[in-house]
UniProtKB/TrEMBL annotation:
Residue intervals of the EVE domain: 9-139
InterPro entries: 5hmC_binding, EVE_domain, PUA-like_sf, THYN1-like_EVE
Protein name in UniProt: Putative RNA-binding protein with PUA-like domain
PANTHER family in the cross-refs: THYMOCYTE NUCLEAR PROTEIN 1
Gene3D superfamilies attached to this UniProt entry: ph1033 like domains
Pfam annotation, one family: EVE
Organism placement in taxonomy: Bacteria, Pseudomonadati, Pseudomonadota, Alphaproteobacteria, Sphingomonadales
Amino acid sequence: MSKSHGAKSYWLMKSEPDAYSWDDLLAEGEGTWDGVRNHRAANNLRAMQVGDEAFFYHSNIGKEIVGVVQISESGIPDPSDPEGKWAAVKVKPVRKLARPVTLKEVKADPKLAEMELVKLSRLSVAVVTPEEWAYILKLAGEGGKD
């Protein structure tokens, strides 16, 4: 996915809330997104730029999009990888969604049928199109246009 004229990109980042939750990120103020060992997900991490935004998704328990984070530092080596071949980024919380959007809702909505969260369900760091981003914010009760 190429960047055009500094346009912001959108992502979805999954975390198991019993390992690292939205509340953990809020408590830290800034977190390091590391431990990703899937090549496509790692490539997505490498593609992130400071200022990009991502949905924070609770996987495993809850299975819902709970908040929005902003990439605060990009292109850093994964501190959990002693060999230095895996990528990481730093994220800061932007806001908790007005209402969480569940995986069940996303899967049931034909407008989101092509979303990587649905099509590549095991991917821990996924691309979100600007249209999907706006629509999910609308589902979360945050207004916006179609």
